[in-house]
Amino acid sequence: MRMAVLVVSDTRDLATDKSGLYLATALQQAGHELHERVIVHDSAEVIQKQVRYWQEHATVDVVLISGGTGVTGRDVTPEALAPLWTKELPGFGELFRWLSFADIGASTIQSRACGGLVGRMLVFCLPGSEGACRLAWEKILQPQCDVTTKPCNFAMLMPRFEEGSA
Predict the structure, then answer these.
(1) Cβ-based neighbours of 91, under 8 Å, separated by 6 or more
(2) What is the C-alpha to C-alpha distance for residues 92 and 96, in angstroms, rounded to an integer?
(3) Distance from C-alpha of 102 to C-alpha of 100, rounded to nearest angstrom
(4) pLDDT per position as a tens digit, 94-121
């Protein structure tokens, strides 16, 4: 699969971004292609612009977004994606928080991790910490992006994402 990593942060750059680097490295180690790794500021407009660009101008199958999923005033990633969803995947956020509880306890309630389809492109919004990105990748996303995962996975369903759409 062809994947892009989008890091949402007002303080990180490519040299200091551990979570995006982890995701980029992990997806390549799993055999996927890294299309691009980009860092943008915590701005709904900027986040939407980048995701729309990948949807319209690039052949990207999956976008992994790190950051902006908390509860502070600057955390706007879920709000940025809300108008773009063609189908939400509430199970992703639910499963992420359930798994995260083992690591950080009740603090997991502060996570607004989410996922869904933007057209035919899978988009997953993860917390900005490297540990959270590692958990999401290893326990949820890597298996779902592997065509050998049974009984089903996103990789095998991708050709059917636009069935019935005009």
Answers:
(1) none
(2) 6
(3) 5
(4) 999 999 999 999 999 999 999 999 999 9
Contact 68, 42 (CB under 8 A): yes
Structure confidence by residue, pLDDT tens digits, 13-45: 999 999 999 999 999 999 999 999 999 999 999
Tokens representing residue 40 in the block = 């943008």
Q: Token digits for 127?
A: 């917390």
Taking CA atoms, 67 is separated from 7, 54, 146, 153, 157, in Å, by 6, 18, 24, 25, 27
Please name the residues in contact with 6: beta carbons below 8 A apart, sequence gap of 6 or more: 20, 37, 38, 39, 40, 47, 50, 51, 63, 64, 65, 66
- Closest by CA position to 1, among listed 33, 35, 36: 33
Residue 66, strand partner residues: 7, 126
Q: CB–CB of 125/97 below 8 Å?
A: no
Residue 132: pLDDT over 90: yes
- Give the HSE-up count for residue 115: Cα atoms under 13 Å, Cβ half-sphere: 26
Token pair for residue 96? 């992420």
* Peptide bond connecting 151 to the previous residue in cis, omega within 30 degrees of 0: yes
